[in-house]
Amino acid sequence: MAGKRSSGGTVAHRLIEEHLLEGRMVPGEEIGLRIDQTLTQDATGTLVMQELDALGLDRVQTDVSVQYVDHNLLQADERNAEDHAFLRSAARRFGVWYSKPGNGVSHPTHMQHFGLPGKSLAGSDSHTCAAGSLGMLAIGVGGLEVALAMAGRPLYLTMPRIWGIRLTGALPDWVSAKDVILELLRRHGVKGGVGRILEYHGPGLAGLTAMDRHVIANMGAELGATTSVFPADDAVRAFLRTESREDDFRELTAEPGARYDLDEEIDLTAVEPLIARPTSPGNVVAVREVAGEPLGQAVIGSSANPGLRDFAVAAAMVRGRQTAPGVSFDVNPTSREILQDLTRTGATLDLLAAGARLHQAGCLGCIGMGQAPASGRNSLRTFPRNFPGRSGTEDDAVWLCSPETATASALTGTITDPRAWAAEHDVPYPSLELPEEATVNTGMLEPPPAPDEAAGIRLERGPNISALPDFDPLPDTIDAPVLLTAGDHVSTDEISPAGARALPYRSNIPKLAEFTLTRLDADYPRRATELREHGGHLIVAGENWGQGSSREHAAITLRHLGLRAVLARSYARIHWQNLANFGVLALEFDDPDDQARIQPGDRLRLDGLHEALAPEAPPTLTARNTTREETYRLHHHLSDRQRRAVLSGGTIPALAPTTP
Amino acid sequence: MAGKRSSGGTVAHRLIEEHLLEGRMVPGEEIGLRIDQTLTQDATGTLVMQELDALGLDRVQTDVSVQYVDHNLLQADERNAEDHAFLRSAARRFGVWYSKPGNGVSHPTHMQHFGLPGKSLAGSDSHTCAAGSLGMLAIGVGGLEVALAMAGRPLYLTMPRIWGIRLTGALPDWVSAKDVILELLRRHGVKGGVGRILEYHGPGLAGLTAMDRHVIANMGAELGATTSVFPADDAVRAFLRTESREDDFRELTAEPGARYDLDEEIDLTAVEPLIARPTSPGNVVAVREVAGEPLGQAVIGSSANPGLRDFAVAAAMVRGRQTAPGVSFDVNPTSREILQDLTRTGATLDLLAAGARLHQAGCLGCIGMGQAPASGRNSLRTFPRNFPGRSGTEDDAVWLCSPETATASALTGTITDPRAWAAEHDVPYPSLELPEEATVNTGMLEPPPAPDEAAGIRLERGPNISALPDFDPLPDTIDAPVLLTAGDHVSTDEISPAGARALPYRSNIPKLAEFTLTRLDADYPRRATELREHGGHLIVAGENWGQGSSREHAAITLRHLGLRAVLARSYARIHWQNLANFGVLALEFDDPDDQARIQPGDRLRLDGLHEALAPEAPPTLTARNTTREETYRLHHHLSDRQRRAVLSGGTIPALAPTTP
Question: What is this model's ipTM?
Answer without folding.
Answer: 0.94
